[in-house]
Design goal:
490 residues, Immunoglobulin-like, 2 domains, 5-stranded antiparallel sheet, 3-stranded mixed sheet, binds heme C
């Protein structure tokens, strides 16, 4: 064989080898991030499971002694993190596109117990234990014994970077050990479990493991709520996630305004956020199942989420004159009380936008932008505060297994603001204009919600479980609105 031929074969076999690597989905050598596969045996989830004879306990059992906490948690999105039909729809798509491996990454945060026990095999709810279906349950957070944030590929918290173990092997079998913020008393655990104090249950570090969603292979931060918080005035003043999300609405408002921590007695297991749509769907499902108490609990969370959004932001309107005539209005959108960017986490899916209408004295509309179209789709001229994700081909995508960069990121930093300028047509003969600005919010674009809910896996029946025979127009919350009269000339 000639030298040239040998070279061709060599190059060809190298190419085949490269393709094999790419197909298997392992990180190519060019990745700046090294994965410690010996430590992260559940990769692409970064959970480390310290196995002992101790098993996970159902939340109902914990609730037998911790009744208040059980009731508060039971209306939270943590309790729905796995059964959430929107999640199941997207998981179904992820597994179809990437393969079964990726489900470990997703479920590592949406149902950690199901992943470490190897019980969950893919999308759907059929045949799973109560602990797996309970999502982010008591025995997830309180079995976290350590954090591995500094050992991840990016050396940042990501994709479930915690160590979990529900207990230890004792002389007479398994001993349950629950980890929490308090110094244990002798009676701690009531004979059911031992107690162990950690320094991270009162800190954002606990939440960081799951509230940092990174691309499963390229480790790009698609959701980085913890990073946004870490470099903010809140973290600098010792205000953590718990201080706003594990308290009632009025406490959260006080915490954000005064930058002081709640009192010990104020903590609740609400984990209340912004996803009023899911609280509403959950409440419908509980009602269909005949559980009025649970339905009321979810509506309480719904009310709190709407109030949280309505307390998050502020608006200002300023006229701008050129040569003595009104030329523009500046609308300033302020992130008053979110401890991270506004909006945060699924910034490429959530929609927060400005609707601005200007009228003259006769009530004639001289400017109107940001009104939704009749079919519920976003107005093309809307000023929207969110992000657009893109894949490695630099094309738009909204799927977390494709997004490896952002082409645009326009969220508002904590205690910061963004200004938007709107040109005003020359006010023909008017002496005064009335400007009305609204900051509006919804969970997703109508089309995205429809696509996900149409792809829910077997075992979820939207009509039977949720009473949904068609996907309704997604409800919109007005976070804040402001009206101001401005003079046409100066
Ligand atoms: C998402 C994580 C998470 C989940 C899920 C969770 N907890 Fe907690 N829990 C915490 C954090 C954080 C604290 C500390 C908050 C504080 O400072 O009081 C805490 C504190 C506690 C405490 C001690 C503080 C006190 O006031 O007595 C108990 C007991 C407790 N949780 C029980 C439960 C039970 C029971 C459940 C399930 C119904 C549960 N937790 C679900 C994170 C969680
Ligand atoms: C690092 C933890 C983590 C991983 C990994 C993760 N998620 Fe999530 N996911 C979250 C958190 C936290 C939220 C809530 C964010 C919010 O509501 O703002 C969420 C929310 C969602 C939602 C929105 C649910 C709703 O009702 O609006 C979907 C859909 C979803 N995840 C799908 C997935 C899929 C599919 C994967 C795997 C490709 C995945 N997630 C991987 C933590 C994670
Ligand atoms: C037989 C009753 C009983 C059961 C069941 C029970 N606990 Fe406890 N637990 C206690 C008692 C008593 C304390 C002491 C503090 C208190 O009064 O709340 C305690 C304390 C705790 C603490 C605080 C530890 C600390 O140092 O901060 C956590 C966290 C906790 N339990 C979690 C759980 C979880 C999770 C479950 C379910 C896996 C559970 N408990 C089941 C009785 C129980
Ligand atoms: C084991 C992973 C995990 C941990 C730890 C965790 N979360 Fe979550 N959290 C999730 C997932 C997954 C969701 C989204 C569930 C869904 O929408 O389907 C979520 C949802 C939420 C929401 C509701 C978001 C919304 O859109 O309304 C809030 C608020 C929240 N978490 C706060 C916290 C806080 C505060 C902590 C720390 C004390 C914490 N979480 C710890 C996984 C986790
Ligand atoms: C100063 C109070 C404050 C602190 C601290 C805070 N948050 Fe929030 N959080 C809010 C407010 C207000 C909202 C509603 C507006 C929004 O969506 O950003 C919110 C919303 C959220 C949402 C829902 C986002 C969505 O649009 O679905 C998640 C998830 C969340 N926070 C997680 C966290 C985590 C994790 C931390 C800590 C790293 C944290 N928060 C710290 C006030 C706070």
């Amino acid at each position: 064989m000639g030298k040239k031929m040998k070279l061709i074969i060599l190059v060809a076999s190298a190419l085949v080898a490269l393709c094999a690597v790419a197909v298997a989905g392992t990180t190519p050598a060019v990745s700046p991030f090294k994965v410690n596969y010996d430590l992260f045996k559940l990769y692409p989830s970064l959970i480390v499971y310290e196995k002992s004879k101790a098993e996970f306990t159902e939340p109902e059992t914990c609730g037998g002694c911790h009744d208040d906490k059980y009731k508060e948690w039971n209306g939270s999105l943590h309790s729905m993190a796995f059964i959430d039909p929107v999640y199941q729809g997207e998981l179904n798509k992820a597994v179809k596109s990437v393969g079964h491996e990726i489900s470990r990454q997703c479920e590592g945060c949406h149902s950690p117990a199901g992943v470490v026990t190897g019980e969950i095999k893919g999308p759907g709810l059929v045949g799973l234990s109560a602990v797996a279906k309970a999502g982010v349950s008591c025995d997830i957070c309180h079995s976290i014994v350590a954090l591995n944030h500094d050992k991840t590929p990016t050396k940042e918290p990501e994709n479930g970077s915690f160590v979990i173990n529900p207990g230890k092997d004792g002389k007479d079998g398994a001993v349950l050990v629950k980890n929490g913020p308090l110094k244990p008393t002798d009676a701690c655990g009531g004979g059911f479990h031992e107690c162990r104090q950690t320094e991270f249950h009162e800190k954002a570090d606990l939440c960081a493991s799951c509230h940092q969603v990174y691309h499963y292979d390229k480790h790009f931060p698609i959701e980085a709520t913890y990073n946004e918080w870490k470099h903010s005035p809140y973290s600098q003043q010792g205000i953590h996630c718990q201080d706003c999300h594990m308290v009632a609405t009025d406490t959260f408002v006080k915490v954000a305004d005064s930058m002081t921590k709640p009192e010990r007695k104020d903590y609740r297991h609400y984990f209340n956020g912004a996803n009023y749509l899911l609280y509403y769907l959950g409440s419908q499902a509980a009602q269909k199942a005949g559980d009025k108490e649970q339905s009321d609990r979810l509506m309480h969370q719904y009310d709190m989420a709407v109030k949280r959004l309505q307390n998050a932001a502020g608006l200002e309107i300023e006229p701008i004159y050129r040569k003595g005539t009104l030329a523009e209005v500046r609308v300033r959108v302020k992130n008053l009380r979110a401890g991270h960017n506004l909006p945060t986490s699924l910034t490429n899916i959530r929609q927060m936008w400005l609707e601005v209408v200007a009228k003259n004295e006769k009530g004639e509309v001289v400017l109107s932008t940001g009104s939704l179209n009749a079919n519920g789709s976003m107005a093309t001229d809307a000023r929207i505060f969110n992000s657009d994700g893109m894949g490695s081909d630099m094309h738009y995508s909204d799927h977390p297994w494709i997004i490896t960069a952002f082409s645009r990121h326009e969220t508002i930093p904590p205690k910061g603001y963004k200004d938007v300028y709107f040109g005003i047509p020359t006010p023909n003969g008017s002496s005064k204009l009335t400007i009305e600005a609204k900051l509006r919010y919804r969970q997703a674009e109508q089309e995205i919600a429809e696509a996900l809910l149409k792809d829910v896996p077997k075992g979820i029946d939207l009509a039977k479980d949720y009473g949904l025979t068609e996907i309704p127009k997604l409800p919109v919350v007005d976070m804040v609105s402001l009206k101001r009269d401005v003079s046409a000339t100066k």
